[in-house]
Amino acid sequence: MPLPDKIKNKPEVRVGLELYWKAFQDLSSDRDVGMGIGPIPWSSMNAWGYRNRIRGDDFERLVMVLRGMDSIYMDKQGKKSKGRMGKSKSFNKSKAMRNK
User: What is the C-alpha separation between 16 and 22, in angstroms, rounded?
Assistant: First the structure.
């Protein structure tokens, strides 16, 4: 059975950037979730950096990269959410029209 395109064509993390990807994966579950997803809290980044002995300029770079990754992630999640909301609204309208 052939591999799905998403797996076959998956992006590769460049050498040296694995640390940021690992941090992003570890910290993504620390988000506040309510009406939508929130950003990764700075306190979680700080704790992760401390645990992994990342200090000074290296820590500042970690925060900068994570904030950038997080911004892109939240933007994509927001667009997905809006798409789902639009579909459910149109479904509800058509259902309401049938009930009249």
Answer: 11
